[in-house]
């Protein structure tokens, strides 16, 4: 009664795990590499700050890690293509700008104020994360600028009401 094999039960679990991971095409793209490096660097900074005397800075890398992980998940599962009302590039741009500023500030403070090795390592990884986040928002900014130069967003703009200059539009001036 003990040797019952059920190979069908492990196959759906493996497919579910593979659907969460980014595809090889996305992971090899510039955006995928930047997002993966942002997730890794944010997590490394988080671990370094947890083990250092500068533990008060642990929240910022954790929030940036979770935000980068969410955006990585959204882009890899193509959720961004299903939710058209949500402006994904602008959200990603604001996330990268805020992350680069926050990582730069906490890295300067952790390197200059604290003397333990974990704080110094967190500061160094924070500076590297600042560069990666800044590169990401630079590329996003260029893509948004090109999109706006081409006149993108014409379909999203509300239509203007017709100009009724012949009608009684000057009646209110009395």
The largest β sheet comes out as: none
End-to-end C-alpha gap: 97 Å
User: What would you call the shape?
Assistant: globular
Strand content: under 5%
Overall pLDDT confidence? 81
Succession of helices and strands: HHHHHHH
The total beta strand count reads 0
Strand pairing plus helix content: what structural class? mainly alpha
- Gyration radius (Cα, Å) is 24 Å
Number of helices: 7
Q: Helix fraction?
A: 55-70%
Q: Can you tell me the residue ranges where pLDDT is under 50 for at least 5 consecutive residues?
A: 154-162
List the helices and strands and how they pair.
Layout: H1 7-20, H2 24-28, H3 30-50, H4 59-76, H5 79-82, H6 88-113, H7 117-149
Question: How would you describe the overall organization of this protein?
Answer:
This protein is an all-alpha fold and 174 residues long. The chain has helices at 7-20, 24-28, 30-50, 59-76, 79-82, 88-113, 117-149. It is globular, with a radius of gyration of 24 Å. It starts with 6 loop residues before the first helix and ends in a 25-residue tail after the last helix. Residues 154-162 have low confidence and may be disordered.
């Amino acid at each position: 009664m003990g040797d019952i094999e059920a190979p069908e039960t492990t196959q759906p679990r493996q497919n579910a795990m593979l659907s969460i991971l980014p595809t090889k095409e996305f992971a090899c793209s510039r955006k995928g590499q930047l997002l993966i490096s942002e997730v890794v660097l944010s997590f490394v900074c988080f671990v370094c700050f947890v083990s250092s005397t500068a533990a008060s800075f642990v929240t910022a890398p954790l929030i940036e890690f979770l935000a980068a992980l969410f955006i990585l998940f959204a882009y890899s599962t193509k959720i961004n293509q299903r939710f058209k009302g949500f402006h994904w590039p602008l959200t990603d741009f604001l996330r990268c700008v805020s992350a680069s500023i926050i990582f730069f500030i906490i890295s300067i403070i952790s390197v200059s104020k604290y003397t333990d090795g974990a704080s110094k390592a967190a500061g160094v990884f924070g500076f590297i994360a600042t560069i990666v986040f800044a590169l990401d928002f630079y590329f996003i900014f260029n893509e948004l600028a090109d999109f706006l130069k081409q006149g993108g967003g014409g379909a999203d703009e509300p239509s203007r009401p017709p100009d009724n200059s012949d009608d009684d539009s000057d009646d209110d001036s009395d």
